[in-house]
Amino acid sequence: MSQASTPAPTTQVGSGTVISSLAPSTPALPVVEIDPSVTIRRSTGIGELDRVLGGGIVPGSVVLLAGEPGVGKSTLLLEVAARWARLPNPPAAAASPSATRTVLYITAEESVGQVRLRAERTDTIAETLYLASEADLEVIFGHVDALHPSLVIVDSVQTVRAPGVEGTAGGLAQTRAVTAGLTALAKRTGIPIILVGHVTKEGNVAGPRVLEHLVDAVFNFEGDKHSPLRLLRSMKNRYGATDEVGCFTQTDTGIVEVPDPSGLFLSSKEHTPDGSCITVCVDGNRPLLAEVQALVVGDSKAANPRRAVTGLDNTRVPMILAVLQARAGLKSVGFADVYVATVGGMKVTEPACDLAIALAIASAAKNTALPQRLVAFGEIGLAGEIRPVPDMIRRIKEAQRLGYRTAVIPNTSDSRQAASHIDRVIIADTITAAISQLLGGS
């Protein structure tokens, strides 16, 4: 008499729903037995992108690149595709077809002829770069199975349609299904996939919020249409830090990486005019020099003097003006039109630039230039005190590397250590003391 088979264990979830246990197709492995070579990062050929990725792209990962229309997402990814295709094959290429430097660029918004024209203009043509104009997810899977590329770029995820799913391309259900399908493809084949995503007018990634949870990394490519500067910020990264920033410039021949971007935000004049002060801000994990310029124009005839701010926090500049008037004795700034801006289209919002803003305004009000090769950073309180800021040593090292010799800093425990990294350190407890040492008394 045959013995009856033991029924599989079941678990009830919710009302009336029962889930049975199934035998796994592959057993769970101790972490020490998993081969780490299957997730070795591979360089994209663009150092600034590798920086934001955390050292390179991980096989089988899915990266979502979001940005406003016209910011240069497609141009950047075409550059990535060409650089990837031109790099030499790794040693594993002979053993695995997907390890070769073959790129499949799926364009669902343009024809292959249009992409070819842009590739000629930006010099991004490579023999192992393949183009396909497809908007059907199943056909895209077929291209991947036929070509076995080592990198897939889909431009864009909101224009691809998954068969059998209700809704139009770009809708919630379609976008979710397309992203889930491409993510499953990446995990099954080990091929990294980069998706282009559009953003809404509020700056968020278009589509359901689950879209950002499905992918491994979310990067935002941003820039001002009036400036060639482009910044690549990491919003989510399962394989790296989320405080890295990549810098690029948009030119007539494409997107160019800028490994040392501090020079973009400084005036080209050798002589520092009055109303100008250099500061060191930290964007993500990266110290950048920025120039703050101020213009103070006489006694305003208007009941409310004009306050024009560009590239800085609109709420902090009026506060600094009030502190200068009430605590530093600069009564004239309260009745004058004041214009404050950064150079090069840079946007600085951290409080560490307060001291530079205050010194630039004071310099403009006194018609006296600050000393040459000087940087200043520190947060200003309502009592006129200068408060410490994070990463002070890193800021000073960056200033010294670029040839600056004097630093005006707040009084902190790191002040003595800071003196060993630059020629001269001026420690100021209050904005009044800083102005007095640099520009003389009122």
What labels describe this entry?
20 strands, single chain, alpha/beta, elongated, damaged DNA binding, RecA_ATP-bd, metal-binding, stress response, nucleotide-binding, four-stranded mixed beta sheet, 2 domains, nine-stranded mixed beta sheet, Ribosomal Protein S5, domain 2
**Principal-axes shape call:** elongated
Please tell me the CATH architecture of the largest domain by its name.
3-Layer(aba) Sandwich
- Largest sheet descriptor: 9 strands, mixed
State the helix count. 11
Mean residue pLDDT: 88
The CATH topology of the largest domain comes to Rossmann fold
Spatial gap, N to C terminus: 108 Å
Physical arrangement of strands within the biggest beta sheet = 5-4-6-7-3-8-9-10-11
Tally the beta strands: 20
> CATH H-level name of the largest domain... which superfamily?
P-loop containing nucleotide triphosphate hydrolases
Highest CATH level, the class of the largest domain: Alpha Beta
**Uncertain segments:** none
Integer tally of domains = 2
InterPro entries: AAA+_ATPase, DNA_repair_RadA, P-loop_NTPase, RecA_ATP-bd, Ribosomal_Su5_D2-typ_SF, Ribsml_uS5_D2-typ_fold_subgr
Protein name: DNA repair protein RadA
Family: Belongs to the RecA family. RadA subfamily.
GO molecular function: ATP binding; ATP-dependent DNA damage sensor activity; damaged DNA binding; hydrolase activity; zinc ion binding
